[in-house]
Amino acid sequence: MPLGDSFVFVTPSESTQAIRFSLRTADPSEAKTRNAIAAAYLEGVWQALRNDAPVI
Predict the structure, then answer these.
(1) Which of 13, 15, 8 shows the shortest CA–CA distance to 37?
(2) Which of 1, 20, 25, 46 has a CA that sits 20 to 30 A from residue 11's CA?
(3) DSSP 4
(4) Could you give phi then psi for residue 32, rounded to 5 degrees?
C-alpha cells in the first residue's frame, strides 16, 4: 500500500475482515491525505478483483 514516499506491505488472511495499518504521521492534514491515497489504492484493488484482473 502506498504510504507517503514508501510502501506498507500488508498480507491479509482468508479470515481478514479489515485492513489496518499506521499512517505514520501525527499531522492531521498529512493523515487525511495518506488515508485518501490508501483508500483509493484499495478501491482499485477491490475493483480489479471484482473484474477478475488482480493488481500485482
Answers:
(1) 8
(2) 25
(3) T
(4) -65, -45
Between the CA atoms of 53, 15, 8 and 46, what dihedral angle is there, to the nearest 10 degrees?
A: 30
Three cell numbers, residue 17: 475482515
Rounded (to 5) percent helix, strand, coil in the chain: 40, 5, 50
Q: Please, what's the largest Cα pairwise distance for the chain?
A: 37
**What is the residue type of 34?**
R
51/4 Cα distance (integer angstroms): 28
Is pTM beyond 0.85 here? Answer: no
CB-based contacts of 2, cutoff 8 Å, min separation 6 = 37, 38, 41
